[in-house]
Specification:
This protein has helices at residues 2-10, 42-52, 66-70, 116-129; strands spanning 14-18, 24-27, 56-59, 75-82, 89-96, 102-105, 109-111, 141-145, 163-165, 172-174, 181-186, 189-193, 199-205, 211-216, 219-226, 229-236, 239-245, 247-248. By secondary structure, it is of the alpha+beta class. It folds into two domains: 2-18 and 141-248, no CATH class; 24-129, Double Stranded RNA Binding Domain. The strands form three sheets. Strands 9-10-17-16-15-14-13-12-11-18 form a ten-stranded mixed β-sheet, with no helix packed on it.
Length: 249
């Protein structure tokens, strides 16, 4: 374990990896404020717009491409939001990632047209046009500083009731592993996903096949193999924490 701590010092630097732009975009085949699919041809209009922006667009009711079915985080999700008021039709679009986080909101299209088909066609065109050329999002970006110093003494950290102290003094091991993870190749490493599928870790190659630079949520550390088992190590308040991870490469 002390060798791993030393490795953290040697690997102290700022790194940044960026994958390709999002390849897919998923849209509804029926917007929630209508009772039928493709009302006024608006879903087809929406699909056409995002295809012009460079996405492979899939209706949420369709069968997904294999790679997208295996990892829905390869796609963005677009939906129209209705906010009508008396005599005014109002629509804007929200773009979300696979964690349901809104990453972009369009301008609001508005119309006072009394004919609903005309009104909705106009507001959709306005909202969509406001996004033109602005959707060049990266599907993954990590830019964080790894540990720059190692404390001389490590103390026990209580992360959960299922944690216990490992043989090496001051190292805490998380044994609460309920789901096996699966490794999918990405640029410079792997992403480890669960059965949902949801990305839990991203690990990046080093000169050793058994040691990776790793991220999980807002935690940065190393991912390594020991005795044919995998572990993720990081620091919390200057205390070294180790999580045991079940992963299939």
């Amino acid at each position: 374990m002390r060798k791993i701590a030393l490795l953290l010092v040697l690997l102290s630097y700022t790194f940044s990896f960026a994958q390709e732009n999002y390849k897919y975009l998923i849209i509804p085949s029926k917007f929630s404020f209508f009772k039928e699919e493709n009302k006024y041809n608006l879903n087809a209009m929406t699909k056409f717009f995002f295809e012009k922006e460079g996405f492979q667009v899939v209706y949420e009711s369709e069968s997904l491409p294999k790679e997208l079915a295996e990892n829905r985080c390869l796609a963005l999700y677009a939906n129209a939001i209705e906010n009508n008021s008396l005599f005014v039709t109002k629509i804007n679009f929200e773009i979300k990632d696979c964690y349901n986080k809104v990453i972009f909101t369009s301008d609001q299209g508005t119309s006072r047209e009394k004919d609903l088909k005309t009104a909705y066609t106009l507001v959709f065109r306005q909202a969509l046009a406001s996004m033109s050329g602005k959707l060049n999002f990266k599907s993954s970006k990590v830019s964080n500083e790894i540990v720059t110093s190692i404390p001389q003494k490590t103390d026990e950290v209580i992360v959960s009731n299922d944690m216990k102290e490992a043989i090496d003094t001051g190292i805490i091991v998380d044994n609460n592993v309920s789901n096996q993870l699966f490794a999918q190749p990405i640029a410079n490493g792997f992403q480890l996903i669960n059965y949902e599928p949801k990305v839990i870790y991203k690990i990046y190659k080093t000169t050793s096949k058994e040691i990776f630079i790793a991220t999980k949520d807002n935690k940065n550390g190393v991912f390594f193999s020991k005795n044919n088992e995998w572990f993720f190590e990081y620091y919390v308040n200057d205390k070294l924490v180790t999580e045991k991870v079940e992963v299939k490469f």
